[in-house]
Amino acid sequence: MIGLLCIFIFLISTVLFASLYMKLLRGNNSKIPPWPKSSPSVLGEYSTAAVAADNEICSDIGRDILLHGGNAVDAAIATLFCIGVMDTQSAGLGGGHFMTIFNATTKTCHVVDAREIAPLAAFKDMYKDKWNNSKYGWEAIGVPGELHGLWTEYKNFGGKIEWKKIVQPTIDILAEGPPTSHHLAGSLKHFEKQILAEPTMRKYYINPKTKQVYKVGEQIRTRDNFKRTLQRLADAEDPVELFYRGEMMKEMVKEFQEHGIKFCSFF
Q1: What is the DSSP letter of 244?
Q2: C-alpha gyration radius of the chain
Q3: Three-class SS of residue 222?
Q4: How far is CA 220 from CA 62, 161, 174, 210, 224, in A?
Q5: Which of 166, 168, 170, 173 is nearest to 71 (CA)?
Q6: Quick one: which of 17, 52, 220, 244 is 20 to 30 A from 2 by CA?
């Protein structure tokens, strides 16, 4: 009799938990399908897909792009936009990159060289007797290749998902205020003296509450200008035209000229 009672209680409990679980699933309004479990491969070989970036938030963005129908290049571009915010000290619109793309179907490999280059008006002795100007300040600039490379990769190897949807997750992060990553916090502390000395840097990387550079985990809510920049690029029919030859170019040239830089024709 006791055995039958235990079996009955077990069955009732099982049905109850099953019904609660199904209700929970039905209550999940996420449009993102479940992510498949990763392969147990020690070598990191995955049967479906994998996204690995410097920052977990950015890896998740790349994963979501895949789940919404984007291909590997679309996911990589979305991840790079995010890394440009989370690890600004080593990535972003002001720099450049290389991207190697291997097509497993055709067995072909493509390399996109999107590294930054010297301004056309640069000359051999421009930093003579002022070497620090090559590292800090308004003269320490190359023509950024990042956006040109991302757009080239998207048009030639991606494009399975709308461009705006690739950029939007990073815009959303900026709107909320990204947490300061360990890598970024370390760089901010290392260059704190230079940041405090440059008004345009101080405006964005000094916490208005503490009057110090942002520390690990503190939300950066001071990058509204960059958020608007990404929004304009996301909405643009041709972001390369806008950035390198259009209104953004004119705005950048004007800002450089206001800070005493004469060789602004490189844009």
Answers
A1: I
A2: 24
A3: coil
A4: 22, 29, 8, 12, 10
A5: 166
A6: 17
Query: What value does the mean pLDDT take over residues 9-17?
Result: 47
Predicted pLDDT of residue 122: 85
Looking at residue 179, the DSSP 8-state letter turns out to be: B
> SS3 of 154, please?
helix
Beta bridge partners of residue 117, listed in sequence order: 143
What token pair was written down for 144? 């950024």
What span, in angstroms and rounded, lies between the C-alpha atoms of 193 and 184?
15
Cβ burial of 126 (10 Å; 0-12, 13-18, 19+) is: middle
Find the mean pLDDT for residues 257-266: 68
Q: Which of 254, 258, 234 is nearest to 93 (CA)?
A: 234
> Is the alpha carbon torsion for 80, 85, 87, 88 positive or negative?
positive
* Rounded CA separation 150/76 (Å): 9
pLDDT in tens, 116-139: 998 888 888 888 998 888 888 888
- Pairwise CA distance, residues 76 & 59, whole Å: 9
Would you state the structure tokens that stand for residue 116, as one six-digit string? 């930054």
Q: Tell whether 115 is in a known binding site.
A: yes
d(CA 89, CA 185): 9
How far from chain centre, in Å, is Cα 137? 24
Burial class of residue 174 (count of CB atoms within 10 Å of its CB; 0-12, 13-18, 19+): buried
Q: For residue 46, how many other CB atoms are within 10 A of its CB?
A: 12
Tokens of 69: 């129908």
Tell me the C-alpha distance between 48 and 27, whole Å: 27
